[in-house]
Amino acid sequence: MDTQKITTEYRKSQWINIIQKRQDSGQTIGDFCQAAGINKSAYYYWLRRIRKEACEAFEKPDISTDITPTGWMQLSSVAAIPQQTNSTLSIEISGCHITVDINTDPELLKNICRMLRTL
Hints:
The chain has 119 residues and is mainly alpha-helical. 54% of the residues lie in helices and 10% in strands.
């Protein structure tokens, strides 16, 4: 049992309470310290120390064993996505309607569209 560490933690908890009381009072630091009989330098020392510890605790990153980088998400595989085999596309050009599906030759579709644009 480290008595110095326990003493420091006890003092820190006392100063956290003092700082909270000062903030709740709405008084300036100078007025509060004078009324409470607290050394202003000691107040600032503990305020700085407590803020620093709070910031350090806030900044510590979570150590993760996951190999996925943060900000990324796992996508499902292509096999898990259901395929629609009966999907069709309807196109209207110059009043002519064309319906194509996945098996339609892209080159043929391109030629038909070109021809319909000239009408």
